[in-house]
């Protein structure tokens, strides 16, 4: 098994990646999507889907993994729309089922599946700042097609994003950092567009 991961500044691109991965034969149970979803105009906060409620309500989406999108809260990130194996790990951590907290669940889940720890911190910080993460656990036979799908849908260049964060003194994701407000997310998205236009 390999883990192929991408970060997207446009939530619609991330949703398209999920659909393409499923169409290519990757099981929904082996795909994760997690993000703040502020750029699409869609809302998944259904009745009873409060921050910290975990992945409970079945909301949004057209089928497959996207039909199971729900809300959960990750310390340092805030409420995210999420579904999949990695989101379930983070939800379990938020509920106290996994030692180390939800950030440890998100970062730990990525690193335990083969993602470089430094990259995992950039992915977590990216979600904190409004980007959407897609990660797929795939067989060696599926790895090339999954990598192609992820790379052909305008993912964030991780090295460029890491440099952008480090220019302001960032080193690693810190779950004790306050979650971005909607105004801060909007400013961050504008800054990202100026730094690296789509």
UniProtKB/TrEMBL annotation:
Residues 5-69 form the General stress protein 17M-like domain. Pfam families: YflT (PF11181). InterPro entries: GSP17M-like_dom (IPR025889), Low_temp-induced_all0457 (IPR052948). It comes from the Bacteria. Residues 175-198 are annotated as: Disordered. Signal peptide: none annotated. This is General stress protein 17M-like domain-containing protein. It comes from Phyllobacterium ifriqiyense.
